[in-house]
Amino acid sequence: MADKSASLSMDEKSFDYPVRAGTVGPDVIDIRKLYGQTGAFTFDPGFTSTASCESAITYIDGDKGVLLHRGYPIDQLAENSTFMEVAYLLLNGELPTRAELDKFTYTITRHTMVHEQLSQFYRGFRRDAHPMAVMCGVVGALSAFYHDSTDITDPHQRTVASHRLIAKMPTIAAMAYKYSVGQPFVYPQNDLSYTGNFLRMTFGVPAEPYEINPVIERAMRRIFILHADHEQNASTSTVRLAGSSGANPFACIAAGIACLWGPAHGGANEAALNMLREIGRPERIPEYIARAKDKDDPFRLMGFGHRVYKNYDPRAKVMQATADEVLKELGISDPVLDVARELEHIALHDEYFIEKKLYPNVDFYSGVILSAIGFPTSMFTVLFALARTTGWVAQWNEMISDPDQKIGRPRQLYTGAAQREYVPVDKR
Ligand code: ACO
User: Fold this and answer.
1) What's the pLDDT tens digit per position in 63-116?
2) Helix and strand tally (H, E) in the chain?
C-alpha cells in the first residue's frame, strides 16, 4: 500500500491518488481511477511524464547519466560480460552461473538456423531494398514458420519464441546483408561466440575460411551489449503495445523493428555518420553548429540529445573508447573521427548545447566504428535491431507475465468537429 498520496482539485472537489515508489528513481502517481472519478483524462503527448508500465529490467537516471540492467552498470557489463550473459540477465533477472550460462548458450545456438524456406523470402525483395525493410518483412514472416511457439498463454512456447528470436536475429540480419551484396548466405557456426558467428555470417564467404579478429569481435560484443535494452523507449513501447493485444511475439518484434527504423530513434546512427561525412573537415563545424541553433532551420546535430539523458550518455563513453581501439587495430585514420571529436568538443562548450543539456548519445560514435569494420550505413540500424531484440523479448515477457497487464488503449483530447448532419454531395 502506498503511504504517500497526491491530491488534485477539480470543479471544487478534491481527489487523492496513491503515490508509488520504485526501488530508485521518480515516484509515480497512480491515476488509474482518475477518469472514473473526474471524467477527465491526462494529456501527455510523447509520454514525457507518463510511466506506461511497471518494470524490473532496466533503470536510467538521465540527469546523472546512469544506465543499469537488473542493477548492473552498463559499463561493467560492456567491459566484462558476453552478450549471452547479458541476454540471460535481461530475460531472467540474474547473471547466470557457469552451468546456467552453458545451458543457455547451448539452447540459443540450437536455434540459430532459419527454416530453409525462409531464404526464399529474401528473393521477393529488390536487391537494393533497405535492409530494415527486409528485416520488417522477414521477422514478421517468422510467425508463419514457427507455429509451435505463437501461443502466448503457454509459458513454454513463450520461452521457445524468445530463444528463437535472439538466436535467429543475427542469421536474418546477416542474410539481409548478403542478399544486398549478391553473395551466398553463410550458415551459422555454433562453436563461435554470438558476435563472432554474426561477423562470419556477414563477412565470410564459402570459398575461404573466415578469421575472426578478436578486437573487432570485442567491439561488436560491446556494441551489442550497449544496445541490448533501454527501458521504455519508442520501439520497446511499440513491442509492448503490439503485444498487449495478444499478438504473437514475432509480429510484436517486427513492429518494434519498424519503429526503430525512424531517424529520431535507431536510424540516428546512420544519420549521424552521414552528417559527419557531410561536414567533412573540422573547419566546417561552426557552420553546422550555427544551423543546429537556428530556429528556422530544421537541421539538428544527429547523435546529439536524448529524451532521457540530460548528461553524457554512458553508452557514448564506451563507444568513444571502442572507436579509438577499432581504428587503431585496423590502421585507419578516418577524418570523420577527427570531425566527431572536434564537434563534440565544440558543442560541449557551446552555450546553446549546455543550456539545453544536449550531449552525445550512443549513436554519435557507433557509425564511425561500424563503418570502419566494413558495414554499409544501411546496416547500422539492423545491428541495433539485432541487439535490441533481447531487450524487446525480455520486456515482452515481463508484460505478458504481469497480472495487471491490459490492452494498451490511450485516449485523446478531441478537437475535431462536433456532431453534425450529413449533407448530400450535390448540396455541399
Ligand atoms: N541538435 C540541435 N538542437 C536540438 C537537438 C539536436 N540534436 N536535440 C534537441 N535539440 C533542441 C530542440 O530544438 C529543442 O529546442 P527548443 O526547446 O528551443 O525547441 C530542445 O533541444 C529540446 O528538444 P526536443 O526535440 O523537444 O527533445 P526530445 O526529448 O523530444 O528529443 C531527440 C530527443 C529526438 C533524441 C532529439 O534530441 C533529436 O532529434 N536528436 C537527434 C537525433 C538523435 O540523435 N536521435 C538518437 C536518440 S538515441 C537513440 O534512439 C538510440
Assistant:
1) 999 999 999 999 999 999 999 999 999 999 999 999 999 999 999 999 999 999
2) 18, 6
Q: For residues 335-367, b (16+ Cβ closer than 10 Å) or e, as one string?
A: ebbebbbebbeebeebeebeeeebbbbbbbbbb
* CA-proximal residue: ligand 1, atom 27 (nearest): 307
Instruction: Please name the residue whose Cα sits nearest to atom 39 of ligand 1.
Output: 264
Q: How many CB atoms lie within 10 A of CB 183?
A: 15
Q: How far apart are the first and last CA of the chain?
A: 59
Give the closest residue to 236 by CA, choosing from 85, 76, 82, 398.
Answer: 398
In our burial notation (b when 16+ CB lie closer than 10 A, e otherwise), range 257-285 reads: bbbbbeeebbbbbbbbbebbeebeebeeb
Ligand 1 pocket at CB < 6 A: 264-266, 268, 292, 300-307, 356, 358, 361-363
What is the H or E stretch that residue 69 is in? strand 66-69
Contacts (Cβ under 8 Å, ≥6 apart) of 274: 302, 377
Q: In this structure, which amino acid lies at residue 190?
A: N
Report, as residue numbers or ranges, the catalytic residues. 306, 363
Closest residue by Cα to atom 35, ligand 1, is: 306
DSSP conformation class of 44: -
